[in-house]
């Protein structure tokens, strides 16, 4: 196969930051994807409809001329979120979900939820208004091994949420374990999951073998090979409960390559090509379109895109960095070759 043409895809989980970083990275996403679910964990977090609409305007100003791109905004759920704000979000045609971060779980999650059972009244309102809840599924118990945090979260927290709110639409973001895959398989159609390129491509050796490689450090952390294989099986299965969400998370290179580096992999520039490599290796290129272009839109009850994109089978090399001066960003697989390229 020399070329692969699919319906223009969407990214159902991405970080584009703001300011100078936004201007650097947003064109990469807009070139590949028609729409993207925008994460709200800025400083300060995006907690109100008014803040989200202001952020949306900033994003649209960074879209290159001649490219159609729609940012799908989300709100950061906190212990102080008001029911009136949930109602306002439900009435807005620009807000598509609320994001739940366990407090301290990842980048800019300090405003997240420390006691999830205490926000059950808020989850009841999300269920009532049929607003999806996007979950960073990790426990923050300091006694829990970092490689077990997703599994423990599912066992101790997510199972209870699903039981208490059976009609709440939930996306378990960036799943990383076989246990998460099995949970989604066993749940109703209201529970789905996004899968990142790094968790499909790599196991934890990529992060730790031959030295610490900070540009492969993300949260949830990359797991064992058996978990990677379970994710590949799920992504390439044609099951509509699993769809594309890069979790592309840009950080300035100097903040990654430090004694306490930031969590996040920057994949937006080559996202579709990275997924294509995974699907090709699995002998499932015919399943890429559903995963990338159909299932997420269907879950969010949005129309599928009408345009197309074409990938060409050609070897090329990923740039070492993006941005200028003190605002450079190092992508995942920087300087390495890929075998697919979007035309």
Describe this protein with a few key phrases:
3-stranded antiparallel sheet, single chain, alpha/beta, 8-stranded parallel sheet, 343 residues
Explain what you see.
The protein is α/β, with parallel strands linked by helices. It has a single domain, classed as Alpha-Beta Barrel (TIM Barrel), CATH 3.20.20.140. Helix content is 34%, strand content 16%. The protein contains twelve helices and eleven strands. The protein has helices at 19-32, 49-61, 83-91, 120-129, 149-164, 178-186, 197-201, 205-208, 225-235, 253-256, 271-281, 288-299, and strands spanning 3-7, 11-14, 35-38, 70-76, 95-100, 133-135, 170-172, 191-195, 242-244, 308-317, 337-342. An eight-stranded parallel beta sheet has the order 2-3-4-5-6-7-8-9. Helix 6 links the parallel strand 7 and strand 8 (191-195). The protein starts with a strand and ends with a strand.
Topology readout:
Blueprint: E1 3-7, E2 11-14, H1 19-32, E3 35-38, H2 49-61, E4 70-76, H3 83-91, E5 95-100, H4 120-129, E6 133-135, H5 149-164, E7 170-172, H6 178-186, E8 191-195, H7 197-201, H8 205-208, H9 225-235, E9 242-244, H10 253-256, H11 271-281, H12 288-299, E10 308-317, E11 337-342
Helix pairs in contact: 3-4
């Amino acid at each position: 196969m020399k070329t692969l043409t699919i319906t223009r895809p969407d990214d159902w989980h991405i970080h584009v930051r703001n300011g100078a970083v936004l201007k650097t990275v947003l064109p990469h996403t807009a070139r590949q994807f028609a729409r993207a679910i925008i994460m709200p964990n800025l400083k300060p977090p995006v907690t109100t409809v008014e803040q989200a609409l202001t952020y949306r305007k900033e994003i649209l100003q960074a879209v290159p001329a001649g490219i159609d791109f729609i940012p799908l905004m989300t709100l950061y759920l906190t212990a102080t979120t008001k029911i009136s704000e949930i109602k306002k979000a439900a009435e807005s045609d620009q807000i598509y979900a609320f994001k739940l971060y366990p407090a301290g779980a990842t980048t800019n999650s300090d405003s997240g939820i420390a006691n999830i059972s205490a926000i059950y009244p808020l989850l009841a309102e999300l269920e009532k208004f049929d607003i999806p809840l996007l979950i960073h599924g990790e426990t923050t118990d300091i006694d829990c091994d970092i490689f077990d945090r997703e599994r423990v979260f599912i066992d101790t927290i997510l199972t209870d949420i699903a039981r208490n709110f059976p009609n709440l639409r939930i996306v378990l973001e960036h799943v990383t374990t076989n246990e998460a895959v099995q949970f989604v398989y066993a749940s109703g159609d209201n529970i789905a999951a996004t899968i990142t390129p790094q968790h499909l491509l790599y196991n934890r050796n990529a992060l730790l073998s031959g030295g610490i490689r900070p540009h492969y450090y993300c949260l949830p952390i990359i797991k064992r090979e058996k978990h990677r294989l379970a994710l590949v099986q799920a992504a390439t299965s044609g099951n509509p409960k699993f769809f594309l969400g890069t979790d592309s998370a840009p950080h300035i290179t100097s903040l990654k390559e430090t004694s306490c580096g930031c969590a996040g992999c920057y994949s937006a520039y080559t996202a579709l090509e990275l997924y294509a490599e995974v699907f090709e290796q699995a002998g499932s290129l015919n399943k890429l379109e559903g995963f990338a272009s159909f299932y997420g839109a269907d879950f969010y009850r949005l129309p599928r895109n009408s345009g197309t994109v074409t990938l060409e089978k050609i070897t090329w090399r990923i740039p070492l960095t993006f941005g200028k001066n003190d605002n450079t960003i190092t992508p995942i697989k920087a300087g390495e070759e890929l075998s697919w390229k979007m035309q």
